[in-house]
């Protein structure tokens, strides 16, 4: 008499929900990406208003001490305006879940980090808040691994 071999073990159950954050491996990164996209849009609006204020009236901001990387405030206004627009557009792109949006977001958030570091003499408290926020956005962009939409 021959005995039949036992059936192979069933694969582990997939507890990911369709359309959810499946594939990310880290639910904090999935939520972080959505929060990061939202923060990028809000940051973009603030940077645009910050740039308009610096372009319209140079006396709005004062410098705290002498720094090597001191620039004209009108030039800083244009830098913040352009970077703010780019960050806002990339933030909207993150909601599509496209890979290009994550790559562009990483680049423009990197530019925003540099701009805020150089902006320290004029708005130190705000610059530090934006640097920490930018670092969180970069973490969430680099740690989210999924082809699903946010």
Description of the structure:
61% of the residues lie in helices and 0% in strands. It has four helices and no strands. Helix 1 packs antiparallel against helix 2 and helix 2 runs antiparallel to helix 3. The longest helix has 30 residues, at 27-56. The chain is elongated and about 95 Å long.
Uncertain ranges: 14-24
Q: Sketch the major β-sheet.
A: none
What's the total count of β strands?
Answer: 0
Described by the principal axes of the CA atoms, the overall outline is: elongated
Supply the number of helical segments: 4
| SSE class | mainly alpha
Q: Report Rg.
A: 22 Å
Distance between the termini: 57 Å
Estimate the mean pLDDT confidence: 76
Order of helices and strands: HHHH
**Strand fraction band?**
under 5%
Share of helix, binned: 55-70%
